[in-house]
Amino acid sequence: MSLTADLPVGDLQFYDNYVPALAPGNWRITVGHTLAGVVTGDLGAIQNMVVSAPQFAVDTNAVLNQYPPAGSTGQYAQVLPHIVLNDALLPWERTMTGSSDNPWLALLVLGEDEIVGGTGSPTRAQAGTVTSFLSADPAVLKPDITQEGDVADTDPCAFIQLSTTLFTALTPRLTELRFLAHCRQSNIADKAEQGLEANGLFSVVVGNRFPAAPAQGGPGVQKSIAHLVSLEGLEPYLVDQPDFGGFTSVALISLASWTFNTMADQLQDFRGLMENLVAQEYDGTTCAPDGLWLRLPEPSPAIDTGTPAGAEADRRLADGFVPTPYQFRTGEQTFAWYRGPCVPVLTMPLSDGTLLPTADAALIYQSAFGVFDASLATAWQTGRALALADRAFGQALYDFRQRGHQLTDSLLQRLQSDAFSADQIAGLSGNTLVQDEFLQFLTSDLPSAPGLAGAARPATGPLPAGAAPDLDPDPSRDLDPDPVTAVKNFLADAQAQALIADETQDALLPVATWLANLLLLYPVPFNLLVPDGRMLAPETLRFFYLDGNWLRALTDGALSVGMQSSRDSFFTEIMGDVIRQAATTAAQALRARRIGVDPPAAEAAENLVSGFLLRSAVVSGWPNLAVHGSVGGEDLRILRMDRLADDLLFCLFWGVPDCVEFAEPQEGFRFGVDDDGNVPVRQPLAGGSVPLGTQLATPLPLVPGSLRAGGHNVLDVATAAQQIQGALSAARVAVDDFGPADFALQMVKSPEAIKFTSPTG
Predict the structure, then answer these.
(1) In contact, 5 and 597? CB cutoff 8 Å
(2) Contact predicate 11/81, CB 8 Å
(3) Which of 240, 294, 363, 450 has the most neighbouring CB atoms within 10 Å?
(4) What span, in angstroms and rounded, lies between the C-alpha atoms of 576 and 524?
């Protein structure tokens, strides 16, 4: 299988399967030697090995997505449930009798009353060990499988039991299995960080049964249970009329399971959840997008803005501040304003570029109202606390300062050395040694030189006291005789800073990387990002800008650790811009390194970071939710996107988007039919009259005509595949070797998406 290396963000590529080169099991490698005319005897070696593959259980991390989402309620009666696996090989890692292309997994959709036993579990699964499961039972058919060498008898497993009648009615036929599993490749650049494969390749197992809908006049929801089961060892029974002998039920290993509810209206499906978020943009029937900013809701009763104090309080709340309890060192109680880094307004940068030396220096006092603003002081103290808690960062910061001090001293000494000319001084580096220049002078200039000092010393003389070096000095001047002033003058020079920054890159890298994580707020406690729960109630979407002043105070606090002298302080202050720029550069590339994908993105017109917080069941239901932020139609770089909780998504953009789109994940496309039981026949071939995947003119009626007899809503996959092939032939786009990827392309239901657009965009 050849993967698409440059799959665009938002596109999806289907593959029939991903069959491993070596089947699982116990293997023996035998090596022997023979030489013509020589008796070698038993010269050779034997090596036993086990090719491991899941057999009775799979890692919970292997399950990436499920549809319908676990625990959700929605309109699922026209959907074939499916499960997305993070391991692209998993459905084909074990061999089924008859064909290596057949997956050993199947997804069964069941009702509670259709499963035998397991009443103590929400999914009606029973727990046991491998030995107890495989032990013979005269009434229960067990799969005919051989326990692998790396599986212990006491290993736990889960299983379900079905009556033989239901087993035949619900399970796919052996000839249908290949159509119910395939691989999907998607670009993961628009996904939250979840340790996904950089190539974006996933496997998908699809159910063959439509969930039961509520009965006419019955209860509002109908519960369904989905089980990913192993069919290995049950091949003889995956036919139309199997012979079960004296068995009355069948036991199947359950590798994953979940429940969901089907209802007639749209309350908790993707569309319903997102429309609820859109409704928050409206005040009655009037569009009021200001309601989507991250700040406290308007108080009730409203603040009296007729007084200066009331007007100030109203302005503070609108700007994202929260009143919090505050205690003076003397023990007096009052309140202070606090605002985190996620703000609803653009902030003006601090005019003073120097470092904030202490938290007190960052504390703002409003004398007109007698109230403190503790926002920046909190940020500074947070940065310091996080730095003190990380020994590795403290050591890296110390090493960087020491390297800077050593380089400064070394370069200053060489500036005063007689071994350097003016152009050599301008090109000084930390790797240039005075003795190197002296040896070169000895080998080249000594025969014609009247004296060492006269030949090596710049001809134009010493540098006068008090002059600031520019790294390209007039050699007739000397540095300031006061060493402290000389160091300060040297470090204050822009060329010196650039040279030191260049020569300390290796030492600066771990510092910049740690600060990049800090700038993207990874280690910052959530209560500092959202200080009041009312700012982010359940089922809400809130946008914000990142406050550069808060981030600066945060980094200043982190850089304050390990200060041992005024020289440390001065060096950190002078190099502050260099450190911040290095951290900002590292932050822009951090997500690309973490997920292994660096998608093309538009460059931000301004040095601004914006983002959103989404707290909704749509996050837990669609953990691989796709997000795109764009400006002028060009995608912005996503600096960070991850789930802070099951229902909470946090995202940062490099720039300010004028449009943010939320979409169901490409690899999690739904399978099924529309409300009329039709499938939209799509162009299956590239290079045709219309692009690959384009919907053709006439949809194909598929349901109920291709359902199995018996009234269980089970799709006859073989019949459905034949009908789809016939429709493609009629449309003059026939596929010679119609396979799982072709079937998947025809059966997918297009993902739903919603866009939030800036009123000025």
Answers:
(1) no
(2) no
(3) 294
(4) 21
Cβ neighbourhood burial of 135 (10 Å; 0-12, 13-18, 19+)? exposed
List CB contacts of 516: < 8 A, sequence separation 6 or more.
Answer: 583, 584, 586, 587, 590
Alpha-carbon 88 to chain mean position: 18
Question: Is residue 548 classed as helix, strand or coil in its secondary structure?
Answer: helix
> What's the rounded Cα separation, in Å, for the pair 282 and 634?
27
How many Cβ atoms sit within 10 Å of the Cβ of residue 299? 10
Amino acid at 166: L
Token output for 169: 């009615």
Which phi-psi region, left, alpha or beta, contains residue 521 (left: φ > 0; alpha: ψ -120 to 50)?
Answer: left
pLDDT tier at 668, thresholds 50, 70, 90: low
Rounded mean pLDDT, 307-322: 93
Q: Which residues pair with 215 in a beta bridge?
A: none
Cα–chain center distance at 150? 33
Alpha-helical (H) ranges within 8-86 are: none
Tell me the CA distances in angstroms from 317 to 302, 337, 344, 553, 702, one per residue in order. Answer: 12, 9, 10, 22, 56
Nearest to 324 by CA among 154, 527, 65, 538: 527
By the 8 A CB rule, do 98 and 78 touch? no
pLDDT tens track for 120-169:
899 999 999 999 999 999 999 999 998 888 899 999 999 999 999 999 99
Provide the pLDDT for residue 623: 81
Tokens of 445: 């200039």
Residue 496 in 3-state DSSP?
helix
**What 3-state class would DSSP assign to 540?**
strand
Task: Please give the Cα distance from 4 to 25 (Å, whole number).
Answer: 31
Phi-psi region of 677 (alpha: psi -120 to 50; beta: other; left: phi over 0): left
User: Of 125, 81, 123, 88, which Cα lies nearest the Cα of 103?
Assistant: 88
pLDDT interval class at 466 (50, 70, 90): very low
Task: Identify the three-state secondary structure at position 131.
Answer: helix
How many angstroms separate the most distant Cα atoms in the chain?
114
At 452, the pLDDT band (50, 70, 90 cuts) reads very low
Quick one: which of 607, 548, 576, 606 has its CA closest to 350? 548
Tell me the backbone φ, ψ of residue 224, rounded to 5 degrees.
-125, 150
Taking the C-alpha atoms of residue 575 and residue 469, their distance in angstroms, rounded to an integer, is 17
Dist. CA 648–CA 612, nearest whole Å: 10
Question: Is the confidence at residue 276, as pLDDT, over 80?
Answer: yes
Q: Which whole number is the average pLDDT over 341-362? A: 86
Please enumerate in sequence order all residues whose Cβ is within 8 A of that of 633, keeping only pairs 6 or more positions apart, or say none.
Answer: none
Please tell me the distance from the alpha carbon of residue 382 to that of residue 529, in angstroms, as a whole number: 12
**Cα 259 versus chain centre, distance:** 26
Nearest CA to 83 among 642, 624, 688, 739?
A: 624
Q: Is 259 helix (H, G, I), strand (E, B) or coil?
A: strand
Buried b (16+ CB within 10 A) or exposed e, 51-81: eebbbbbbeeebbbbbbbbbebbbbbbbbbb
Q: For residue range 542-563, list pLDDT tens digits in order.
A: 999 999 999 999 999 999 998 8
- Helical ranges in 505-656 per DSSP H: 505-519, 526-529, 548-559, 566-574, 576-595, 617-621
| Whether the Cβ atoms of residue 135 and residue 143 lie closer than 8 Å to each other | no
Structure tokens of 735? Answer: 């596929």
The token pair at 165 is 């009648």
Q: How confident is the model at residue 480 (pLDDT cuts 50, 70, 90)?
A: low
Only one residue has tokens 């003073």, namely 352
From residue 512, alpha-carbon distances to 305, 476, 509, 587, 636 in Å are 45, 39, 5, 9, 23
Residue 311 burial (CB count, 10 A): 13
What order of strands is seen across the sheet that includes strand 659-663? Answer: 634-635, 626-631, 659-663, 753-757
pLDDT in tens, 720-748: 999 999 999 998 888 888 999 999 999 98
